[in-house]
Structure of Aspartate aminotransferase:
Amino acid sequence: MLSDQQLLRIPGPTPIPPSVQRAMSQPMIGHRGQETKELLKSIKPKLKPIFGTEQDVAIITGSGTAGLEAAVVNTVTPGDEVLVIATGAFGERFVKIADAYQIKTHRYDVEWGEAVTPGAIKEYLTKYPAIKAVFATFCETSTGVLNPVQELAKVVHSHSDALFIVDGVSCIGGVECKMDEWGIDLLVTGSQKAMMLPAGLTFIAASDRAWKTIEQNEQPRFYLGLKKYRDNLEKDSTPFTPALSLLLGLEQVLTLMNEEGLEQIHERHRLMMEMTRAAFRALDIPLLTSDIAASPTVTAIKPADFEAEALRRVLKEEFGLAVAGGQQHMKGEIFRIGHMGYCSPADVLQTISIVEISLRKIGKDIELGKGTQAAQEIYLG
Ligand SMILES: *Cc1c(COP(=O)(O)O)cnc(C)c1O
């Protein structure tokens, strides 16, 4: 194994395209100078179609969780009631943030591996009319579930006046999103998942309705106060020193995304998901989620007759291939393959083939090539 070869197939951080790496190594620029102004001016319109919004997308230096916290502190105050739909570890993160700010949190738990049923939320909202905001996870990274946010938005708006707030950290950029059309009031993503950058930026956009709430919300906040970011962005500027190297990388990411085209990007992610799922099916190894609930960006596999952790060890130690394990109670129960951002069908074929040989190494009796062949056949259509 090459000591410096990383086959990074975890659901974030994800590999960085070489041209983005090069863009990030450009000499430093002044954050109040013309170069940064031009940079933000160029970035601004290109982020909007990725979110599916006409609103400006604020860029905050911080990991994805900073964006989630911004979503909470800008919209609700202690004592307000919110509903958090928790379909896994990242839904729970919203619960923890809301708890930290003494928000009255209703928690709607969905079994890990399943997507939320919008109908159930309807009943909840009717029962608790004081709920001011509903928080949901678009792609639940801990299980590889893509929640039906479009339908959820519909349910939230037709049965309440609550804001609909979405964590899209592990899928925005890799899946279609129509924030305005679907009725998402606040959408958050991060840089290190489908956006092909290192960790360090969080992106957040708000609807006109959400802006009204944000302007009136009395919850104290400083660094995460969204209004500052909006007012500065209008002037192609930021309230604090931005992560300039990441912005230089972002500019190149947006160029790459523009060259490939958003529809093609979404199609590539869907294809990678189908190739991955077909491979494990052919090998007779269970998937955690149903086809309907599956995310195009990450796949969770739930082995019945071998140790997920033993497989992960061989993958990493012999081939330098990193896949993720399970979180919390799913630790040791599942492993997760990220196929998002700078990842192609070629990478998926490599991953499957390495998984096959490693399965043999840990003593699982499989026919070599069976999974790879299934993935190849999906590729060929
Ligand atoms: C990665 C991720 C986050 C953010 O995590 P950070 O480590 O703070 O960047 C939030 N939500 C989801 C769904 C994620 O996958």
User: Anything to note?
Assistant: The longest helix spans residues 262-282. The mean pLDDT is 98.
